[in-house]
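Hi D.,

Good news: the full-assembly prediction came through. Inputs first.
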Amino acid sequence: MVYRYLPVTAEDRKEMFAALGITGIDELFSDIPESVRLTQDLNIPAALSEPEVLRTMTGLARKNVSADQYACFLGAGTYDHYIPSVVNHVISRSEFYTAYTPYQPEISQGELQAIFEFQTMICELTGMDVSNASMYDGATALAEAAKMAAGKTRKNKIVVSKAVHPEYRAVLASYCHGQNLELVEVETFNGLTDLSALETAADGDTAAVLVQYPNFLGGIEDLQRIEKIAHQHKGLFIVSANPLALGLLQPPGAFGADAVVGDAQPFGMPMNFGGPHCGYFAVKKELMRQIPGRIVGQTKDDKGRRGFVLTLQAREQHIRREKAISNICSNQALNALAAAVAMTALGKAGVQEMATLNLKKAHYAKTEIEKVGGYEVVFTSPTFNEFVVKTPVAVSDINKGLLQQQIIGGYDLSRTYPELVNHMLLAVTELRTKEEIDRLVKGLEGIQHD
Amino acid sequence: MTNTGEKAIIFELSKPGRVASNLPALDVPDVDVASLLPAGFRREVPAELPEVSELQLMRHYTELSNRNHGVDSGFYPLGSCTMKYNPKVNEDVARFPGFSQIHPYQQEETVQGALQLLYELQEDLAEITGMDGVTLQPAAGAHGEWTGLMLIRAYHASRGEQRTKVIVPDSAHGTNPASAAVAGFDIVTVASNAEGYVDIEALRQVVGSDTAALMLTNPNTLGIFEKDILEITKIVHEAGGLVYYDGANANAILGKVRPGDMGFDVVHLNLHKTFSTPHGGGGPGSGPVGVKQELLPFLPVPVIVKKGDIYGLETNRPQSIGQVKAYYGNFGVNVRAYTYIRTMGPEGLRLVSEYAVLNANYMMRQLAPYYDVPCPQICKHEFVLSGRRQKKQGVRTLDIAKRLLDFGYHPPTIYFPLIVEECLMIEPTETESKETLDEFINVMIQIAKEAEETPEIVQDAPHNTVVSRLDEVTAARKPVLRYTKE
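Then the structure:
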């Protein structure tokens, strides 16, 4: 077998062995205890040539139903959005994707400046002062925000709305367990966080109140009232927000949020079966030195020229070790670049326009589905691009039927909300055409009496 | 712009009315936004995002990319980061719509190819590491460390044991103690001996009934293999603790030795190091975690399972630590690693480690006359030099690193591990040709001579980069973290 990634030739090997005074490669592994040295090949499939590997991978990819051929109405935290072609062209430039963390700023100005611009865009959208360079995803960003709040307030109770993404809450629970923090979940009412229950749950021991905007059920929370509840006992107010929705919705910063986190996947990232996406993390200035992860700052070189560096590193693990704010090292830099390119391509007007298309198309779908007998749009609060429909039969059966018609149906809420049996969460993005929406409505009509 | 070294920020190129994208026209009946969103909900001031044309966008980012150095640009011997070549076929495959345009909540029968890939990758990684099960959920190395430590915590708790301490060698990556702290453990540091190995006697002193785990990188961050590894794992096991393998340096051991066979109970791998997925300028990575039998019940949910010929997601695992990331990990990264493993096969992976180790030893031997070598024994895939000789000549390791920039190289990792004075940590990887190694060796020799004869050339470096040394102190003292219109 020829290995195209391995340039050492027989002649090279001979010369290098001679330089090292060895006769065989095993001499370089003589420090491994003999009893555990592997004497036979690993039991994994044999090497494939490039054409063979492409055939294998094409075969695996074809076993999946993908949104390029089916109309996707699944959302629930991951969305099928328009990705401008420029995004893939920029992130395919090897100077970006084959580099590592910009530890050497003189030869990393491109990455550093791109991240500085990303930070600025996130601040603009969220209405916050400071953003970091990205987190793994929206779920870990929320968990890190809770951890930050506990560190800042020196309190150990985290209050989270049940209208926050169930997987975000699951990850939050894991991090809270690690940090010995108490996690309290607040019930929903009419598709929104139950504010009287929130009022009861948030008390003097509460480090933070966490809500999602728009929430997992599609509803737009009343951040003005939640801010008051969060702050009345001096806890932090943390909002997980869909950044695309912020093209149209009043940003959490305007309501006094202390931290805004979320996932930038709607900007420039394919669904990728759930990852890689791009967590973002933005805070008020007062929390600047409590923020986890990389941050890029502007400075000057010794000739007075503007340049960019990783900064405020005294927060980080490679300096502070166990006293660091977080253990995060690698984040999602290339995805942050993709988000920045997408936000630039859409621009000031495009982000508003795309958000508006989502709002109006989802509204159309909602109105049409409501006309179908047996289906009911259950919550009355305003929504963005997602809404909940009560269905006459199990959601899994409906989705099976829709699949026959090249439609990927909605999220089965009974998976994570036992009280919402026969409830489906549908997402309608700017990519869904009227024809597809009408086909969905017709499809639902046909399945109602199964 | 008056100064050629500066590059406009995208916001400075902005002009109202320009766009770089096209959205479809509204094809459903129009309604007034105000009727859908009450006043208090609607954004009052639009976000100031850039307004540029598509060509302006491409030129901007192309210029930025020209101010960046990647593995495709030139040699990148950044120690402990395994900056190997990132195969292009992997990039093509990850972009197949059948992988990139699938939703994590699709019905399982519609994503059988994706689940099969993940299942087989788990099996491959279990075989490579000698473990009994693998989760692909962690997004990066540090995330894998934390996941592994949460597994260890759950394991001890399930046995009714209160073990609060994690032992970390002083040569360990900063993420090790940081991850242990995030998992709720106290950290005990154990010293290395003069040769760079874990001090066995010191280890014996610190283990006890409160030891939850020892975290170890092997080969360690000095690039040397802990030859007493069997003794080390035995000491920790006899105290009732578990041993954690930090896979940052796994590029040295593929097909040669397996953590599971050395007595490790939990291991993480960095697919963006060992398995060729691109580092992306600082992510996305992937940090799978492998465990031995006793820890299988605690793995994060959902667990990817195979029943007959059908692949599925299992969530009903009462002892699981729960979820560590939304969905199933950085799937797109895992697709690339799977493609790499299929390309290399068992012999190819073994050769990866053999050549990585050969290259490192060759470079170390060639540079030994010119720089101090704190650990002169056989190294594995990387080695450390000390610049203390050059320091006496007025040239710091930082200066040597900056001088390397003038020759088109990314410098090695510097000032790490912390236990080596003026440290340079060099990892050539197996994908570099002997010619590249020889050229780099010659430049390092030249810099050593410059340090002796014309130190100011090194001290004032870099000379050829778009910016010179940047003021990091002011950056941290008076932070400017976003663009603001003047």
